[in-house]
Amino acid sequence: MKSELLTALRSTKGFVSGQELCEKLGVSRTAVWKGMKKLKSEGYNIEAVSNKGYRLLKSPDIIDAEELKSIRKTAWAGNEIVYFDVTDSTNIQAKRLAEEGMPHGTLVIAGCQKSGKGRRGRGWESPKHDGIFMTLLLRPSFPPAKASMLTLVAAIAVAKAVRIKTGLFAEIKWPNDIVINGKKICGILTELNTEIDTIHYVITGIGINVSNQKFEKEIAPVATSLMLESGKEIHRAGLIEEVLEQYEFYYNKFCQTMDLSEWKEEYNEYLVNRNRPVKVIDPKEPFTGIAKGINERGELLVETEGQILAVSSGEVSVRGIYGYV
User: What pairs with residue 109 in β-bridges?
Assistant: First the structure.
């Protein structure tokens, strides 16, 4: 009943009466009273006034399934929400849930990860209550060759959501990092389960540094958090909901064209690599050049020795970003 109570409280700017809540939720006044008492114990600031009812004044920084359900505005993203207070990795749990048949749009959230990882198996620091650790499960009908572009869908969704909710100038380091002032605040990891011409499922993991006050010595020079950059507390549930809204919007556009043509130029406006020197760490032969943006397939266009090369794999380092100088 928690999500229903919160939804009812948030649906009005003023007070909502106990009787109205009883009728809307189909429960007794005692049940409403107990529900309100439980919400208060969890940190929700609820004002109760005789002959007026209840009013929600402030919500705590909680990201459990009930809280997220009560603020969800999307059509399919987050249609099912699975929350873990502590888990190994939201990507690992999302794979398990996918194998069990959970539907397209399922969101996996954790308060803390013990085995979070980034691309190429790198670790991702996941301290409890300091960040957002989420994975979205997708069951697309398009061919596996198109799936790599979903990392770019997630990147623009996160960057735009951060700008909207915090006012910070979040940018994208192609293809899977979000940076602010040259430091990383978010990593994205997309994994697939496919056959030759069929996608069984895709999982996109997103880790955002929100309230971190410090980082381990080895990553401190290249990492930051939304709190460190803004000096303000960020409500994680609201940011998660905004990410889901933006992801759904860009994913739906992607599915209409099967490429990024509808929002390629918008993505390029977010791209920190654009018009900057880059080093492409290609396994065969690394090279340097000037990044010119992405094409409709999500490849990074790099101008080098008088020609434009389309980079679709490997890694890219940008001068002044993460220590590449």
Answer: 83, 134
